[in-house]
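Task: complex structure prediction.
Instruction: return structure tokens for all chains below.
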Amino acid sequence: MTFLQAAVVALVISAASAPVLAQGVGGAGPPAPSLTVTAATGTWKPVAPTSGAGAGLGTGSLSGMGRQAYINSATDFCLFLPPNPVQDDLVQAEADAVAYCINAFNGTRPMPDGFITSAHFRKTDHYVQVVGTFNPAVMNLDVQDCGGEYDNHGAQGVGNPVGAAISGANNFFQFIGSCDIPGQSTFGIRACSGDAGTSYSYCNNRYDLMGLLFVMPDNDIANAGFTNCDATDPLPVGHYPGGSTFQQGDSSTPDASHYPPAPSSSNCQTVSPPTSSGVTYTWNQAAGAVAVATGGSSGSASAAAHTSSPGSGKDSGAAHTHTSGFVTAPAQAVIALSAAGLAFAAFLL
Ligand SMILES: *[C@@H]1O[C@H](CO)[C@@H](O)[C@H](O)[C@H]1NC(C)=O
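Output:
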């Protein structure tokens, strides 16, 4: 099925079954943690860019709802995240995420300091991407939130969330959550450009249940530091060396030891982390914890940094539960992650 045919099918199915892009549609995942730490007010002041892509487009804002994102480098990119992580988990945010950007402008929000803990930028002939790790506490995210998948298609073909886009790209997807690698919180965002059909094969959003390691294999996902590299194109998503393919929903699902290989990288430069910008949000628990610690309280920063109590246990969420219209199987596919978090224990149709 070509992408266009798939899009038509998706639209027809959307019209027939009238999916509602509202909170809770994605369903699974632990409830959003309540606010347990009050962040100290940051020193961030919005500055409107006077040159480059943002010139003339105005400032970012702590309450911005902009969904036009960008990917420039390991220290200058955006991620789609909940506008209110006290209410939304990462799956729910598939309906309403907004762009948080390291250098926010044009109504996007500034990325809170300390959220991105490592990032690796890769540029190939067909896409740019950043993969890395994050500190969930800074965005009030549950450490057991298996996460969501965001793209420019969604159930109604207008974005997941509606209006989400990346400058210079015609397709993108983002995976973010804390289940792909045990004990790590990881993200990946890829923006594909050029010929639309070719572009889509590298940004194919019909693998939303498979997770970051399948769709964006990269040897540096969990590695420390910030790097900018060129990379070879991998095979299109779902394709294997030798010509075999896997489509989400096929009767047998590859486990992590049979994921497509990572592309090789070259011309890598290690760069310094983004300079701290003084950005805090009311839910910026890490900042709150630091403020408590430096304010002479007896509480230690590490103890205060994550005090949410996940309500529903380790296996509460189907990982990457989707609202994408491209998954047209009659019954909803459900992936249960094993306790180890890597092997797909069940794939029920
Ligand atoms: C600025 O924001 C508007 C509205 O979200 C969007 O249409 C436009 O593409 C954005 N421009 C850039 C350069 O990000």
